Amino acid sequence: MKILVCITHVPDTTSKINFTENNTKFDTSGVQFIIGPYDDYALARAVELKESLSATLTVLNVGLVETEPTLRKALAIGADDAIRVNAEPVDSFFIATQIAEHAKGAGYDLILMGRESIDYNSGVVHSLVGAMLNMPSVSPVMKLDIEGGTAKVTIEIEGGKEYVEVKLPFVAGCQEPIAEWKIPNMRGIMSARTKPLKVIEPKAVDSGVKLHKFELPPPKGAVKMISADNVAELVNLLKNEAKVI
Amino acid sequence: MPILVFVEGAEGKIKKTSLEAVAYAHAMGGPVTAIALGDVDKNELEALGKFGAQKVLHASDQRLNEGVIQVYASVLQKALSDEGADILILANSSLGTPVAANVAARIGASLATNVVELPSTSGGFVVKRSIYTGKAFSLVTLSNTKKVITIRKNAAELKEVGGNVQVTAYAASISDADFTTKILSSEKSTGEILLPEANIVVSGGRGMKGPEHWKMLEDLAKVLHAATGCSKPVSDMGWRPHHEHVGQTGVKVAPQLYVAIGISGAIQHLAGVNSSKYIVVINKDPEAPFFKAADYGIVGDAFEIIPKLTEAIKAAK
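Above: the input entities. Below: the structure tokens describing the complete assembly.
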């Protein structure tokens, strides 16, 4: 059994978002980077499956050299080896192509990742990888159990859940509560230093999507405070000023 | 060149965001062909003409009542080629987004999801996407002739531009090989306004003190025709189901009005709501960070304010 977990290297969820170079580059100054929170769920479930199914677990990131500490953290959490595709992760199609290129013929039974990255929020890399490898893909997965060559997964849909059966191999985009996030222990951190981390060069691909520029939302005006004794005033403002009710 | 729009049904009705997708394609300059798969009410389909569809295709094969991604992708891929359309528009959803990705991968289209407004075409085909969980936008050029776009709620204004249209039956060729996933069962709340579809959302946080107090929040939601949401701790504690969790790791909403009650406003929660047009915050703590992100605020006891607010809205209608 071989499992691949794809992770993103993204700004901490509390980061202030700013751009530089005429709004064409993300401003990394003072920003802490983490494993994408959804990817962290995928990784946590993969570590559990690795133990229960005696699987091998490879973790992959498409990114430049500064993402290696994030990969090391994934190794500390429990992955056996890591792969970094040496390229800036510019677009979903580009990233999916790199993942599919690596996975092609590598014999993975399961490819897990987060439902979406929290930087570009496309939420399509798992679907694209599935399409490129001709495997089914499911997302967002809240529960994943494997028995033999079949998995039972719970998928969140608008207003509820779907219980789905899918045969291995497949691709899944994960979210809570699939597993509890795992915090690396000292032994994990020590062993992560010597686990293999392979760097591979990207496949050239034209994704058909090019960044023009970034934009920040306009600043919010000051809040209007209304007395708790005067809810009628709030209703009046919502009706006549905001015109939303 | 026609634009194909996939319209999604829910309980026989067409989802509001799908209507907006039709309006979006119409505003792009159409002509618009809409396609629905599985059971959808005929009147609803005919009414798509009002929002700009010139042609409505309906594939009513019963096997399409299960939303299997690969099956839908194959049908839409074929429909694009039958209609001679280069552009496919869909609503962002648990079904629409993966279907969009599968179609795009197969036909070699430029793919953009989470699109928030109409494209600008003065210098290339540029769409605006919501990124960093609502904290920023990216403007991206879609350079391939074929394009697949999924839109967020409120990306296009819904206005009537025409009358009803005839619905054409569409014979979808469905291959058993595409049923790569099997839906065993599903659980779905019925008759409720779905969070991503709602114009108004009323959300409760830890300040509601327990699931037994949700009734008053639901009463308020009812008079506002709103969906109910909650903060992460509330869903983590099991007071409310996970699909109601609004925030960075839950549902991202973009309603006209978001009412937050007893939610302090952690940055992760704000990330899920900052695309809302207006935000009302009700909290007993005047220092709650959520007030900084709000348009209107009331400091006070939620249990006193909610019933009063419900009555005041009833009176104003």
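Note for the figure: Chain B has a mean pLDDT of 94.
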